[in-house]
Amino acid sequence: MSSQENPEENLPAEQAAAHGAGHEGTTVVKHDADPFADPGLPAHKPRIQDIDERAAKRSERTVAFLFLLSMLATVAFIASFVIFPVTEIVYIWPLGHISALNFALGMTLGVALFCIGAGAVHWARTLMSDVEMVDERHPVAAPPEVRAKVMADFAAGAKESAIGRRKLIRNTMFGALTLLPLSGVVLLRDLGPLPEKKLRSTLWAKGKQLINMNTNEPLRPEDVAVGSLTFAMPEGLEEDSHDFQKEIAKAALMIVRIQPEDIKDKRELEWSHEGIVAFSKICTHVGCPISLYEQQTHHVLCPCHQSTFDLADGARVIFGPAGHALPQLRIGVNAEGHLEALGDFDEPVGPAFWERG
Fold it and tell me: Which of 93, 126, 159 is the last residue before a domain boundary?
């Protein structure tokens, strides 16, 4: 039977109210208290460190140990700069082969920061006071009379400073405050030397011979067979020089020989020598070295993201994310019969430069 079929007078509470003490053992309880009232904070329970000095001393020694360990890690961080050379590579499982300097710096700095944080947290949780405190809320805004007094004091101060009448002082003060932050611009000098026009040029220049990167010998036209792919670098660039990686990253060259009648681009044919064409080896997508050549189609493929260039048609992009064609180097033959450059690339090599420069 549903509740809708029961009259209210038949409910237990109504019956108890109607009969009162007529039923022995029946008590009516009235809940007048607010069920949503704030119950308040529970009783404070002291920690073991609050009542046992030996426990407090142990916590103190733990915090001191963590801070001391942080100090030792910081000293080790500084010493790592002296101990480990930049070029040293070590094997650490499961990370594999990584830089010893980077690993040492990361571990020591991480331990130093972790120990400071862990020591501070342990200090706060075991030794600092943990008594709960109640702070009654109050209006954030100041009373109207306080706001009026503040505005009156500000107006009086501005009038006494004569900033409105002394225009020379006011303008020079604003000028000084405006120029002062510009002094921080000199800190940008620590980011490294200015690039100037270094990204727009390479080591290639008129008269520079093409050196075979496999034999370190000057290239002759007869050394380049049809369908082969040869890599070259500028004359005078040595692999043991300190700036080799920086320079070869811009000057690396691909040498391919194509039948002149198969070259579709007119300028490419003019800049070639007997069908030998020279293009930048640096992919124009993200700068990967291109090394895969398909001699039947004269296509080269970047192994990183599969950008494909047609070396018979100005090295234009025919597939992939690369944004523009590979730059071509104009070449010829010198009096000794060696291939040489007739100038630098006429456009910057590498990726994303055109969007920035």
Answer: 126
